Amino acid sequence: MVSKQRSARKAFPGTEPPTDWTDLPAQPLPPDPSERGEPEPGVDAPIMLLPVGRIDVTQFEAVRAPLQECFGRAVEVGMRLPVPKYAYNPNRGQYHSAAIMKRIEEARSTDWDAAIGVSQEDLFVPEVPFIFGEADRSTRTALLSLARLRPDGGVPEARDDVLRRRLISEAIHQVGLLRGLAHCPNNRCVMFYAASVLEIDKRGAALCA
Questions:
Q1: N or C: which terminus of the chain carries fewer CB neighbours within 10 A?
Q2: What pTM did the predictor assign?
Q3: What's the burial of 6, exposed, middle or buried (CB within 10 Å: 0-12/13-18/19+)?
Q4: Sign of the CA dihedral 135, 136, 142, 146?
Q5: DSSP-based three-state secondary structure for 172
């Protein structure tokens, strides 16, 4: 009796599952806000961008249209939060993101779809040297920083364009996490977890199939 073997199907390039599963989180995704008894925002609820500290809000204009197009929500600029001196760690010379996230959560209105803090301070969590941003789906809040997104060289116009593209990519990535999207193994997808600006540049700002 001859056994029939199925032909192995190759995965689409860039979507292969990771071979080392030890890096995957042990805990499931944070609960959806509706599971915490929080009312679901209406279809007209905006995504609010909150400047944190001394940051030029004109840079926010670059991300408003891409966020609105991607998620179908109005994007508005909200109140400015104070300079996060309370989050500064002198030993690291960086700002603890969890402390700032708490202030963003306190500032968020239930009439908003989400609150996204944007800072120019260098952010960290204890386990890693730095982070580009952070998102908490359970509170509909996120935080991202321009500190590590700024290019080192080039003419001013080129640097501004690179910063704009990186900011758009990171903003869409963080809001995607708030929407319940997981990190994607496709390094050309905006939901790919980028550990460097080169990976941010490579993934771009578009969702994969």
A1: N
A2: 0.79
A3: exposed
A4: negative
A5: helix
